[in-house]
Amino acid sequence: MKTCTRLCGLDKGDATQMYVEPTAELHKKSNAAWIWRYCRPDAGRVWLSLSLFACNKAFTLIPPIMAGLIVNQVITRGLHAELIPYLLAMMGATLGNVATRYSYQIIMQRFGQNAIYRLVSDEYEKLHLLDFVFFDHAATGDLMDCLTADTSGIRFFLAWVSYNLLNCAVTFAAAIIALFSVDWRLALALACVTPFLAVIGRSLAKNAHSIYFGIRNSLARLNSMTEENIEANRVVKAFAREKHETDKFDRHNEDYYERNMELAYNNAAYMPWLDGLSYSLTAITLVFGGWLAIKGYLSLGGLVTFQSFLWMIRMPTRMFGWLLNDVERFNASCIKIRRLLDSEPSIRSPRAASTGKPPASGPVRGDIRFDHVSFAYPETPNVPVLDDVSFHIRPGERVGILGGTGSGKSTLVALIARFYDPTAGHVYVDGVDTHDWDLTALRTGVTLAFQDTFLFSDTIADNIAFGASRGNKPADRDDLRAMALIADADGFISEMPDGYDTIVGERGVGLSGGQKQRISLARALANHPAVLLLDDATSAVDMETEARIQKNLAGLGSGMTIFTIAYRISSVRGADVIFVLDHGRIIEQGTHEQLLALHGEYWRTYRQQLGVELGRAANGLDAEPAPPSGEGKR
């Protein structure tokens, strides 16, 4: 669990907060250096923007100089003929200023969008590379924030904050040089203000750093709860818990509000000082500069030029605080995304360079062997889910798995597809350890149909075709229908208004649980796997429908190895071998008849379910056949 906690940022007992404060490892490389790799393909745009930016700064310096010359040459000395050239120079410089500024701003916007496009692509790809261990703890709302709010914060920094930081720095430096060239005494008086700006800015940034992390984590909790409630709206309404959920949301919303107000209070504590210092520059110029002009140390034109340059100091001073806030927002966003991108899956395909041989690439035949396999989840290493499990299943055999809740049934089949790795022992597919299989090849040949079905907001045909591993080649419609027939789904699909082209709602809303399970089973069959893992995949269908599905699966022939997890014995009684699990151990195994003869746990379960069926028979319904002679006695 230590690895997952570090990567996911989880505190014990908190599965909603994926991220915490940045670690020293992430500070080894600055956020600016890290994001540059996404910006490098557009380096040409950056250099072009810098060239336009330099031209823009040059144009910016011309109007104040012209204003001083107009005062000194035209007004004071009466050289009226020079007025028109000075005015034309000011107009040309202003037009050049506007044109270059507009150009580099548009280029920087494109630059930022391109970088974010690459970043989001990497994030989305990383999500598909991460394994079940990561998603067992990560909150969906938090991950969505990484792809939306955090990337938006980075885009804003690249497309706007970056050049404004440069603009403020260059403008301030150029203004200082220009002001010293006009009058060093007045410029020195203004420079005395800058140490105060540095101290206030540092305090502002230091406080804002932790505040932005708090805001981000609070937003993640708020979004996670919202996403959960939207998905579980039927459960909330079924139990009339709207008031309870609204109150819970209000607490999260209040926390988010308070953290944003904390940022506002931080700004309120420092921004007035920054604004006050920026306006103090005007007061110093008018008072001290006026005194210098009266005493004859500074010409009137020089004072006008100095005053015209003053905005070049006042503007960076006023923006300083806001830009520092944006920088801290950028840093917080980078840390969140870097934690996601730096997360490494514990399940990955082997590399030929490290193993000395290429990974197994199939095709899978369906031979499955467990060799003293034990498994415990990382967060509970002392609680075994599977304990010393061994068996050998040959290609084409049908396996039934029964057991109580928490007995390890789902974990057992998940190990076959290598969604998890065993903590002890080995799982072999076709005689090759699953560690040595290429993951794509393994999971192409081993397909799992879950009890908790998920359907995409797409047509039924496309949902079934999702399981067809044929690259970019479209799935054959006749083949999709054949799979639906096996899953006993063709009947209700054909009765829908648009048949296989009917669009199902989000997560299959509008379909019954049994209908969703049958579409999910058809999707798994569309992959034509060598090993089919059915994790209680027909629990929501009635027994008559399940009997037809089992009969159809039996008619597939001997080429497919099928593992069936079920709680109804009718689902597994036809299997070649049945495993009964209890607390992670196989306590009984054999055929239906062999297990009944043992008079053990399987026999007791059969008796209990038989009693239910006999009750159904008393009401005129179909029932299981009576047990063999003598089976009722012990």
Note the topology.
Elements: H1 2-8, H2 24-27, H3 31-39, H4 43-76, H5 83-129, H6 132-135, H7 140-182, H8 184-191, H9 194-231, H10 233-238, H11 242-294, H12 300-342, H13 352-355, E1 368-375, E2 386-393, E3 398-403, H14 409-416, E4 424-429, E5 432-433, H15 439-445, E6 446-449, H16 460-465, H17 477-486, H18 490-494, H19 513-525, E7 531-535, H20 543-554, E8 561-565, E9 577-582, E10 585-590, H21 592-598, H22 601-618
Parallel strand pairs: 3-8, 3-9, 6-7, 7-8
Antiparallel strand pairs: 1-2, 1-4, 4-5, 9-10
Helix pairs in contact: 4-5, 4-12, 5-7, 7-8, 7-9, 7-12, 9-11, 9-12, 11-12, 17-19
Helix share bin: 55-70%
| Mean pLDDT over the residues | 82
Main sheet?
6 strands, mixed
CATH class of the largest domain: Mainly Alpha
Q: What ranges have pLDDT less than 50 throughout 5 or more consecutive residues?
A: 1-25, 617-634
| Structural class by SSE content | alpha/beta
Q: How are the strands of the largest sheet arranged?
A: 6-7-8-3-9-10
Second-tier CATH architecture of the largest domain: Up-down Bundle
CATH superfamily of the largest domain: ABC transporter type 1, transmembrane domain
* Overall structural domain count: 2
Distance between the termini: 47 Å
Number of strands: 10
Radius of gyration: 36 Å
The third-level CATH topology of the largest domain is: ABC transporter transmembrane region fold
Number of H/I helices = 22
Beta-strand percent range: 5-15%
What is the 3D form? elongated
